[in-house]
Each structure stands twice: as C-alpha cells, then as structure tokens.
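Entry 14. Structure prediction run on the chain below.
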Amino acid sequence: MKKTGHTFRYWQWRVIICSMAGYSMFYFVRKNFSFAMPALAAEYGITNTSFGVILTLVGFVYGLSKFVNGIIADRANARWHLVIGLGACVLLNFAFGWSDVLGRALSGHSEGPLFVSAMVAVMAVLLILNNVFQGCGFPPCNRLLANWVPPKELATKTAIWNTSHSVGAGVVSVLCGYLIASGGDWRLCFWVPGAIAAAGVIFILLTLRDTPSSVGLPELPGTKTELDEDDSKEAFRSFIRKRVFLNPIIWVLAVTDFFVYIVRFAVLDWGPTFLQNRAVPLSPQLAGWTIAIFEIAGCAGMLCAGWVSDRFFGGKTQRMCAVEMLLVAVCMIVLHFLPADASPYLVLFLLALSGFFLYGPQALLGVIAVKQATKKAASSAVGLIGFMSYLSVVVTGAGLGWFSDTFGWGFLFLLMTAVSLVGAILVGTLWNIPEDGYIH
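Output returned:
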C-alpha cells in the first residue's frame, strides 16, 4: 500500500508538470499574433478595426472549440488529444509566416488595397483554423487534473497548473518583443515560437499519460458519481445535462468568467499597442516585459489564491474569487486616474498588481465548476465556461478596436473597473453553495 501511494504521487506530479509544459506551448502559437500586429500595421497599413475583427472571430471560434473539445475530452485519451491539437497549431503558424505570399497569390497584387484585403483574409482564415485546434489544449488538461487530484487539493494544485498559462504567454511576449525589436520581421513571431512548440509535441507524446487506471493505479477515492453504476452513452448524456447544462451554478460561473476575460484580454491583446501609444510611449522591448510581468504576477496570484482558498476559505473558492475581483476593480480605477505622463514603471507596477488579483479567479472559477460537475463531466463544464469566457472577444476584439480608432484609449481602465465590479457581484452570489457534486 505504501508503494502504491508513492507511485501515485510520482505519477500525479508527473502528469501535472508535463501537462503544464505541454499546455504552455499552446500559448507560444496563439499569443504571438498580438506582438506581430504593430509591425503588420506599420508595413501594410492594416487598421486596428481589422485586427479587432480578426481577434473577435478567432476568439469566438476558440471558445466554441473549447466547448466542443470539452465534451470530447470527457471520453477521449488526453495525451493524444493534446498531441493532435498542438501539432496542427504548429503547422498553421508556419503557414502564417507566408500569409503575405498567399495574399499576393490570391489578389494578383503585391501592394494596394486589394493586396491588403487578401492578406487580412488569409490571416483570418489561418488564425481561425489555428484556434479550432487551440481548443484541444485546455479540456484534456482539465480532465487530467480532475482524475489525478482529490477535490480537497484541487484549488492549490490547479492554481499551480494554471501558471502554465502565464509562463507560456509571458515567455512568448518577451521572445516576440525582442524578435520584433531586433529585426522588425513579423514572420519571426510565428516561425520561432512554432519551432519551439514542435518540440513540445514530442515532449507530450513521450512523457504524458491519461488516467490513473492507464498506468495500473486505482482511481481517486471519494469521487463516486452516478456513472460508476451505469457508464453508457445514454447515462453520460443525462449526466451532462443535469450537472452542466441545467446547473445554475455552472451558468453563473460561465457569465462571471466572461467578465474576467474581458479584463484579461484587454491587457493581453491590446496591451502592446496601448503601451506603445501612450503620451510617454514604451519601447517594444519594455512593452513585452510589461505584459510578461503581468503574467508573472498572475502566476504568483494564482498560487497565492489557490493556497489561501484551501487553507483559509475551507475550499470555498468562490469567496476568494469575489474578494479578488473587487481588488482588480481598485487597480483599474487607479490606472484610470493616473496622469498621461505618469512613469512607465508605475503603470507596470499597477498592471502587475491587477494581474496578481485577476489570475486567481481566472484559475479558480474552473475549480468550482470541476467540483460541482465532478470528474466525469469536468471538461464539459469547463468547456461551457470557456465558450462563454471567449464571447468576451466581442467586447475586447472588434469592440475595443473600433473604440480605440474612434475615441482613443482614454476610458479603457474605467470600463475595466465596471467590468470587474460586475464579476465580483456575480461570483459573490455563490458564497454558500455546496462543496462539490460527488455522492457522499
């Protein structure tokens, strides 16, 4: 029995660490586009509105893909699910580096409005396809966590795992910032991260495994559900309807995550452009470091939020989320009232602090959903929440792109203050919900 326990701990941490490394590679071939946007705009005259429309389309597709892949992930092998998704994203990123060539072939022109329109269309198609396969990233990882981590440890260990988001986005931000600054060639933002992610495909294939039973270990104790008695397709569909689609708790979490992601994407997608267009502009390198520090602070915030949630809130993660969204609102209102010529380093500090508080709810809302839906429907629940969260691109993509072209960035942080307050109120309505949905 002692040997089994040691073996389980080994495999639990191996799955957590290897899936973290693998999932961070998805960010290498997704968040690179934001850093190519200023260079593409300078070279080809592409407007923020056009970029915003693309961001809206790909965000919606990604959210829909997370939803569909969430349902698939509850019945699929997680390792192969990740390998297929990341492999396809790598190939599409290499193709994106040739989007100007494809635009010339499609339009028959090497410059002018027809060429630019064709190139924008090519970029949109490639990014949409990329985000179809990006949806194969989080759902299988969520399935792994639900099957390898007991509910009472889920907030802490999910918070640890969720640092993979910030590591991937942070590293690719710095990498792309330097690639653009050193040569100005936007293509490198796709080819270099794509090559690194290709190595990630091999890593996942060699190191990752699926459920405890796939390596000869018993399943987690205390996680019994109705599907343990009847695991037929009909029973599974009935279970999904009850625990996910007809569950009001899941819907409140989904709408809350919508508001969390508005704030997150406002910084990640438009941050590099906003920071380089201030009264005191930041260089591409410093803009890259600013977004990276936002992510690094987010890592620390997730770890702190997970530990505090389990240690002081008795696993009632929704209470921690409500408190942190209020603190995000405080950071946003302070940023709004900063003078236009405020020190870039003060802006950096406040963005980092907002990231510290924001990434707690970003990671832990999914923990609440997993506990309520149980490990049998964990990915379906998080897939639905993911779809709702990525509907936020309607606001942060085309909405903010149009707003910046029309009015500038003056009221960005005031808008984010209101968004944060709404998120805090919503998740606060779940203050006293049951601990989980397992049969006790």
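The chain has one domain: 2-211+230-428.
Filed with the rest of this week's runs.
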